[in-house]
Give the backbone structure.
Amino acid sequence: MTDITRLITTKAAHKQSRTTHDLAAPIRLLISISVLLGLWQLTVVVFNLPSFILPPPLDVAQRLVTRYDVLLRNTWVTGQEIILGLILGLSLGLFFALQMLLFKPVKRWLLPLLIASQAIPVFAIAPVLMLWLGYGIGSKVVMAALIIFFPVTTCCYDGLRNTPTGYLELSTTMGATKWQQLKYIRFPAALPALASGIRVAVVIAPIGAVAGEWVGASQGLGYLMLQANARMMIDEMFAALFILSLLSISLYYITDRLLKRLIPWQP
């Protein structure tokens, strides 16, 4: 009876600690944002910077209110590019990681190409993508997918090939086929590594989307930032940058929460 009571108490304490941790994360984020805004305002005041160099936070906040419709419309476009780029990049990364694991000739040919592809800056091929795919959403989606393709592929492949050999030997003894090993052992064991790749992808996917908008676009936050900079509307440029940062942070936080729930055995 004492052991049961101790177990219940331990679980309750763990649940309370987890709840406290979940509540502390947003509070820390708010404190960090407040400190950064305070330092921003202090820098403007101390160095007497003009608004076309560094606008004060209140001017940026005012621009967020007065131009919310334009900012919201362009945020929707950039958000679509990021999400579609993530779906495409993750799908391709998982597909090629499986090909390298299951077919050794593919690994010998594809892995060196993957490594060599990182020697070419993704930003350098953005004009080529604009030429091939036009100035629509397609080129930005491909840009976002390309920039996350390598980390997702490598993380997934490392997770798949580093499956504990004891599990594989036991499943072979029990008569499991290669596909059964992949479904029930290799893939679940690789999910924590794949989750790390997904977290990296969520952070850097907006870079690809915005870089594509900088090269050529008619809408999106990157396009809006370029237009604001050309017109010396620096407060609007900072407003777009703030929304882009908020979008990236929110996307990362949502993804992290989903991965923790879907993969409870990850470290």
In short: The mean pLDDT is 85.
